[in-house]
Amino acid sequence: MMPFLLAEFTNLEEILPLYVYCVGSHEQKHLERPEGYPAHQLFLSRSGQGIFRIPDQADMLLTPGTALILPANQPHAYFPYESTENWDLGFVAFDGKAAESLLEQMNQLVLTVLQVPNFELLWSQLESLWQLISLNGEQAYWEASKRIYGMTISLLEGQTSDKKILKRVTSSGSPQPALQAAVKLIHDHYNERLLLTNVARAAGYSPQHFHRLFVSSYGMTPQQYILQLRMRRATQLLQENPAITVESVAEKLGMETSYFIRMFRRTYGVTPKKFKDQI
């Protein structure tokens, strides 16, 4: 077993784009988190069986060799399948400015029980991460940042090992009126710090149900939709105002400048400045 280990960064969380919050493994007992956990979590079920319970969603059964990605602040509870059963559960919590975009790239894997063909590799990476953090040195946290990224890539690699590309599932028909109202709210406030939990509740949905409906209707996550809105508005601002600075565009979109430049380049293949020069 790897006792619960809380990483103490001495303010490195402001520097590292991805950092480990805590890591460990134990015989899991019943745990309730009605407010969720402040960081994203990756769980690895090594032996025994356990239930994850998410509000407004069917219970999920984790068996040996399975994994679960749980977003930050997601209300949940988990416990052994039988009260007398020993459930060996490993976990690592992580956060950072790159964490949200990382989860967006892996959105099909979130809140889903995953069969992990390379489970022993992931478990060994978890043990290695625990040993590294236990050193409690500043340099260990830089290395831990690299290793938690490596773990997520290993998980993704295992899910696509059959060479099949994960496809988004879309549905036919018009979005529901409440969902359309939520989308209008996004359009009205896309340039603000928009909490999707508030958008979901304003439309009368739980955050999880809202996420599923949105992906089903629009073929992308709400976060991806907001990013597309921002990028389209960015091109309009750059075209309509030749003298506008990149920093001003980022500010109008409610984005930090370096993140805006990175997302613009990912979307259009050029930096905003290069885009301006080509107009």
From TrEMBL:
MF terms in GO: DNA-binding transcription factor activity; sequence-specific DNA binding
A matching Pfam family: HTH_18
Domain HTH araC/xylS-type: 180-278
Alphabetic keyword roster: DNA-binding, Transcription, Transcription regulation
Top-level taxon of the source organism: Bacteria
PANTHER family: ARAC-FAMILY TRANSCRIPTIONAL REGULATOR, HTH-TYPE TRANSCRIPTIONAL REGULATOR EXSA
Protein name per its UniProtKB record: AraC family transcriptional regulator
Organism from which the protein derives: Paenibacillus lentus
